[in-house]
Amino acid sequence: xxxxxxxxxxxxxxxxxxxxxxxxxxxxxxxxxxxxxxxxxxxxxxxxxxxxxxxxxxxxxxxxxxxxxxxxxxxxxxxxxxxxxxxxxxxxxxxxxxxxxxxxxxxxxxxxxxxxxxxxxxxxxxxxxxxxxxxxxxxxxxxxxxxxxxxxxxxxxxxxxxxxxxxxxxxxxxxxxxxxxxxxxxxxxxxxxxxxxxx
Length: 199
Fold this sequence. Notes:
By secondary structure, this protein is α+β, with helices and mostly antiparallel strands. The protein folds into two domains: 1-92; 97-197, Gyrase A, domain 2, CATH 3.30.1360.100. It has three helices and four strands, in the order H-H-E-E-H-E-E.
């Protein structure tokens, strides 16, 4: 088909066609830029939202860790305090037998000997066994040990005295045996905890 239009009109049609194509590309680019802007805006909003959520979680975890650390420290302090109280309690009842036996031996009257001692279940109590030459010496043992001048016991009671073969000692020089129950004087120098007060 022959195009008999003048060259000016041909150029006008050609430019018109190019303008249409150019407008289409411009619209496409505008829509693409708008789409990219929407996507970027949504991405930034999502990132900001997630960032705030993560920050809240981090703050919550930090607070939780801080509170757990505090409770752990408190528990350690309580355990140390309990251990210290237990040590004090044990030491307050710890008897220095080497000094105690020497003092009891010094308080025993002439004609009597200490044959044994036993810690009672009662706190601060002790059971003493002794042998003596006669009944009077056995009772004098109780009197001497309960004397406040010794500073050993606050109270000494006679549990049993037996002489002349009735549960007496096998040693013929000391035919009488005596069993005593005594309570320590709280200020005596034979408890480990009181050693600092004796100087």
